[in-house]
Amino acid sequence: MGRVVKGINFVSLKDAGDPVELSEAYERQGADELIFLDITASSGERDILIDVVRKAADTVFIPLTVGGGIRSVKDAEKLLRAGADKVAVNSAAIADPTLISDIAYKFGNQCVVVAIDVSKKLDQAGEVIFEVYTHGGRHGTGQDVRQWATKAQELGAGELLITSMDKDGTKDGYDLELLSLIHEITNLPVIASGGAGKLEHMLEAVQTAHADALLAASIFHFGEISIKEVKDYLTANGLSVRPIPV
């Protein structure tokens, strides 16, 4: 059985608990959706932990997105049959971009989340680029996120999960520059990931960078901020959020 882990900048991973138990807890607390990302499936060249997905899907009733180790339409189908509502593709889609269109064609665009791991770099001319990484942040592609996000949209992605590797686990705020850039160049819903540490960070990701959804791990896994606190804060600041069931 897999474990939930959380690190900083994709390394120094720390155990955060049992995935099924956490799923149940987050549903009770009012989470809108759960995202399972098996961050070592690609680098370890193994399949995703489908038993974990099946048990979580049997336990909770909010949408479940699963990624990591999806290399084919057949892999996507296994996860969807196990109870996932959407699949997130990353490394394999960069190696073979037609994976996005193939999954979208068979199951619909709404099933395809393209996860993009990004780190800010300077190119040889001294210009800032946002380089796309694969294999759990281990391999730089040399490709700028502008090119890949645009192509992912053209190929049929339904959503983009944008993770700042530089911000991951730091709890000093989302990368607003990166998120704003993705908002400007695509028409897809953007899930912001990497850097949430305070309630203010959640608000600015939406108000300033136009994120459509907010992913957070550390603050929830280790009990620093509750989902209710986030929703209450965003509501108090004029944002429309799905109410927590009573």
What descriptive keywords fit this protein?
single chain, 246 residues, alpha/beta, TIM Barrel, nine-stranded mixed sheet, two-stranded antiparallel ribbon, 10 helices, 11 strands, 24% strand, disordered N terminus
| Largest sheet geometry | 9 strands, mixed
What would you report as the Rg, rounded to the nearest angstrom?
17 Å
Shape: globular
Supply the number of helical segments.
10
Straight-line distance between termini = 32 Å
CATH superfamily: Aldolase class I
The overall number of domains is: 1
- Derived from helix and strand composition plus strand pairing, the structural class reads alpha/beta
Q: What is the CATH level 1 assignment?
A: Alpha Beta
Helix and strand sequence: EEHEHEHEHHEEEHEHEHEHH
Mean pLDDT: 88
- Named CATH architecture: Alpha-Beta Barrel
Number of strands: 11
Helix fraction bin: 25-40%
Task: Summarize the structure in short.
The protein has 246 residues and is of the alpha/beta class. It contains 10 helices and 11 strands.
Task: Report what the structure shows.
There is one protein chain. This protein is α/β, with parallel strands linked by helices and 246 residues long. It has helices at 19-29, 50-59, 73-82, 91-95, 98-107, 145-155, 176-185, 199-207, 218-221, 227-236; strands at residues 4-8, 11-17, 34-37, 64-67, 86-89, 112-122, 128-134, 139-144, 159-164, 190-193, 213-214. The chain has ten helices and eleven strands. The chain has a single domain (4-236), classed as TIM Barrel (Alpha-Beta Barrel). The protein is globular. Helix 1 runs parallel beside helix 2. The strands form two sheets. Strands 3, 4, 5, 6, 7, 8, 9, 10 and 11 form a nine-stranded mixed sheet that branches.
